[in-house]
């Protein structure tokens, strides 16, 4: 077990969940009855997500405290993380003498069908992002590279990316978020706004989907 970190973490891979982690039995937690049989296990319980998010909020405050922040939330999968992260930043800033002006914008990316990433990543419903000029951004969500290129074109003063999850994929891109919640095995997970064909966003924990769940909601 690592010592308690008292300084800012620097760039960290977050809480590492190993490949041999079997997850928690679903019987130990509440989850919506309509998903019974559709899940294998709980990978990250909701409370742990919230505790980790609170720490990320503090790291972000420590690093960006003197800037106005424009938060760019990547929909749909990032909405819950973004909402909770913004909430924690607000709470921390209320409790210190250090309030940070923060605005929140949304962008929508779509690339997954079933549990496979499709080639055609597209930005759906992009707003005019020219407001980003001279601001510090904390983007949340996934599929960073395309988005970063898009955002950099608006020449913000600073860009920081927060991602709740980073998967250990064999050829991971060198492009990692500045703030990472958890590093997880390369398997498809759902819950906490992450979906499988639009299902499971209403599940609070991050869970592994079962084979029968995949079949049930396959398109
Ligand atoms: N779950 C849901 N959506 C995703 C995932 C995942 O594991 N990876 C990329 N998009
Ligand atoms: Mg999705």
Automatic annotation (TrEMBL):
Q: Which InterPro entries match?
A: HGPRT, PRTase-like, PRTase_dom
Name the PANTHER family for this protein.
HYPOXANTHINE PHOSPHORIBOSYLTRANSFERASE, HYPOXANTHINE-GUANINE PHOSPHORIBOSYLTRANSFERASE
Write down the SUPFAM superfamilies for this protein, in alphabetical order: PRTase-like
Which positions fall inside the Phosphoribosyltransferase domain? 50-196
Instruction: Name the GO cellular-component terms.
Output: cytosol
State the similarity comment: Belongs to the purine/pyrimidine phosphoribosyltransferase family.
The name of this protein is Phosphoribosyltransferase domain-containing protein 1
Source organism (scientific name): Lates calcarifer
Q: What is the lineage of its organism?
A: Eukaryota, Metazoa, Chordata, Craniata, Vertebrata
* Top-level taxon of origin: Eukaryota
Entry's Gene Ontology BP terms: GMP salvage; guanine salvage; hypoxanthine metabolic process; IMP salvage
Classification via Pfam families: Pribosyltran
Q: Which GO terms describe its molecular function?
A: hypoxanthine phosphoribosyltransferase activity; magnesium ion binding; nucleotide binding
Q: Which UniProt keywords apply?
A: Magnesium, Metal-binding, Nucleotide-binding
């Amino acid at each position: 077990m690592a010592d308690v970190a008292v300084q800012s973490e620097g760039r960290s891979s977050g809480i590492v969940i190993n490949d041999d982690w079997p997850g928690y039995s679903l019987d130990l937690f509440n989850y919506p009855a309509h998903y019974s049989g559709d899940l294998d296990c709980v990978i990250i319980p909701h409370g742990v997500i919230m505790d980790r998010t609170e720490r990320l909020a503090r790291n972000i405050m420590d690093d960006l405290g003197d800037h106005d922040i424009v938060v760019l939330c990547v929909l749909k999968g990032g909405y819950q993380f973004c909402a909770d992260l913004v909430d924690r930043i607000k709470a921390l800033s209320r409790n210190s003498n250090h309030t940070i002006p923060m605005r929140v914008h949304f962008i929508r990316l779509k690339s997954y069908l079933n549990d496979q990433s499709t080639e055609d990543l597209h930005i759906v419903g992009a707003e005019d992002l020219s407001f980003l000029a001279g601001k510090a951004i904390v983007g949340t969500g996934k599929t960073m590279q395309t988005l970063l290129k898009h955002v950099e074109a608006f020449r913000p003063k600073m860009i920081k990316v927060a991602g709740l999850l980073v998967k250990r994929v064999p050829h991971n891109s060198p492009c990692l978020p500045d703030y990472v919640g958890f590093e997880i095995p390369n398997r498809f997970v759902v819950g906490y706004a992450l979906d499988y064909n639009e299902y499971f966003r209403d599940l609070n924990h991050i869970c592994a989907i079962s084979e029968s769940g995949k079949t049930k909601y396959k398109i």
